[in-house]
Amino acid sequence: MKMRTLVLLCLWLSLRPCRAPPGLCGPCQPDRCSLPGGCRAGLVPDSCGCCLECGNLEGQPCDPGNRSVFYGLCGSGLRCEAGGGGGEDEEEECVCEEQEPVCGSDGRTYMNMCQLREAVYSTPELHTAGRGPCRTVPVIKVPPHSQVNGTGSSLIFLCEVFAFPMALVEWTKEGRDVVLPGDDPHISVQSRGGPLKFEVSSWLQIEGAETGDSGTYRCTARNNLGTASASAVLGVLGAEELSSYLANSDRKQPMDIADYDQDIY
């Protein structure tokens, strides 16, 4: 009866490893333990404390303490603690003990040591090149999107950049030798850090668009190591032209700010 209960429990857990409740653990026979493979966070004791199983990865739910009961134990370099959502019934999850970013030998910045260890599993020759982020020229992670809309609409372009040292982001329009917004009252530019570490998000917004706003807009990011840029085309049409455009395109309505946000996030 106990064994049938265990089998049913394992089927219910489906994607989780099958862990025997403490009362169903038999005598420990280490020579009968099979060593699991593909463990990106190393090995930890199973629920019976006899064999080894894969440790849980960063962000996965976990059992607090040193005994695997339901979710399992965190892997190497991870600790089990409540998440940051602030809820009363929030489950514990695995959190990396070393939160400082590191530079990998592949030239990529890893947000913590645990992410580097995970990457080493598939790239064994990878190692730490130094503490802190890799010094790099700007990289455009999210370029601005080309769009078409009608006169009088509000339009927005977004440009997300990763760089260390942090990058300065500027907007220009092809054919105008000036950094936007310049003295144009219906154009504004805003920038802030994020959404991830060492990234900058910059928005170019046009209120009450006019046909003369049509053209190519360029996002340029620079630091002392180099420069990167990306451009997008804006078309601002009158009512009749816009109706004709929509009738002959896949879009059923013009692109607006909300559409742009959904495309990005």
From TrEMBL:
Residues 21-97 form the IGFBP N-terminal domain. It is found in: Secreted. Gene3D superfamilies: 3.30.60.30, 4.10.40.20, Immunoglobulins (2.60.40.10). Pfam families: I-set, IGFBP, Kazal_2. InterPro entries: Growth_fac_rcpt_cys_sf, Ig-like_dom, Ig-like_dom_sf, Ig-like_fold, Ig_I-set, Ig_sub, Ig_sub2, IGFBP-like. One of its GO terms (biological process) is regulation of cell growth. GO terms for cellular component: extracellular space. One of its GO terms (molecular function) is insulin-like growth factor binding. Residues 1-20 form the signal peptide. Residues 138-235 form the Ig-like domain. Residues 88-136 form the Kazal-like domain. It comes from the Eukaryota. The keyword 4Fe-4S does not apply. Keywords: Disulfide bond, Immunoglobulin domain, Secreted, Signal. PANTHER family: INSULIN-LIKE GROWTH FACTOR BINDING PROTEIN-RELATED, KAZAL-TYPE SERINE PEPTIDASE INHIBITOR DOMAIN 3. This is Kazal-type serine peptidase inhibitor domain 3.
